[in-house]
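Quick one, tokens below:
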């Protein structure tokens, strides 16, 4: 995989088929660009760009602390270096928060926006739950990883696809734990900025799994109502990583939305 020459040394995969705007996929905390393998295989006739976030996979973290401006600059520097004028941006979980920040600051770079499994207005109980997960992550790495994978997929899917459990668990294990804590701390303490949402003015799809316990359908519906030019679609029978467990439905949904929103690249 190539790395960017800019200071973030971003590890990325860019599959270019034509001169149209590529679909850029941003993964979630603790994961890597490898979670998008099903999408890379499906979107054979589209330009695709995936990359490892700072401190994840093969992209290093050379700061003591992280903030969302770092992630926004990382994406901007990546597409600038690749001489990409416009993108269709798909952000998952932490990646959706990055996508929200990027969309508010760099509207001119977007042809469309997908916010997938995005938190919004967590209740006090929901904040407590995610804080407890953070504390478990600090003290018991393996227990935290196991609970995460089981939270992200249905029991039935994991019973029938043990290799997926192993792959995601391994991905979580291989990431630098100190870096993971820095990124997860951002997610745990995230506070919705209504001005950021008000500044998003591109065609937007908000989506989440029917049974996602962390990024709920209620959150997604309320988020969609807040963003101009937005629509909401629920992924039936999905939990958190719908792009893997419900890849067929997820891919068709993204393809339809992107194809409706192409403009000059």
């Amino acid at each position: 995989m190539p790395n960017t020459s800019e200071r973030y040394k971003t590890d990325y995969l860019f599959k270019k088929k034509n001169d149209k705007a590529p679909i850029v996929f941003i993964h979630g905390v603790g994961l890597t660009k490898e979670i998008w393998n099903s999408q890379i295989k499906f979107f054979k006739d589209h330009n695709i760009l995936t990359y490892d976030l700072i401190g994840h996979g093969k992209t290093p973290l050379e700061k003591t602390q992280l903030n969302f401006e770092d992630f926004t600059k990382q994406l901007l520097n990546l597409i600038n270096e690749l001489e990409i004028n416009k993108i269709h941006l798909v952000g998952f979980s932490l990646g959706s928060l990055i996508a929200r920040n990027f969309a508010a600051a760099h509207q001119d770079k977007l042809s469309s926006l997908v916010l997938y499994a995005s938190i919004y207005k967590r209740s006090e109980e929901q904040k407590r739950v995610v804080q407890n997960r953070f504390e478990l992550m600090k003290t018991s790495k393996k227990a935290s990883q196991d609970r995460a994978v089981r939270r992200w997929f249905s029991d039935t899917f994991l019973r029938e696809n043990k290799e997926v459990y192993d792959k995601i668990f391994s991905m979580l294990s291989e990431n630098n734990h100190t870096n993971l804590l820095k990124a997860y701390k951002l997610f745990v303490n995230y506070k919705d900025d209504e001005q950021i949402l008000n500044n998003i003015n591109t065609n937007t799809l908000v989506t989440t799994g029917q049974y996602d316990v962390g990024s709920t359908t209620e959150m997604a519906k309320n988020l969609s109502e807040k963003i101009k030019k937005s629509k909401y679609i629920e992924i039936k029978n999905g939990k958190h990583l719908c792009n893997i467990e419900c890849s067929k439905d997820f891919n068709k949904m993204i393809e339809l939305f992107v194809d409706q929103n192409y403009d000059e690249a």
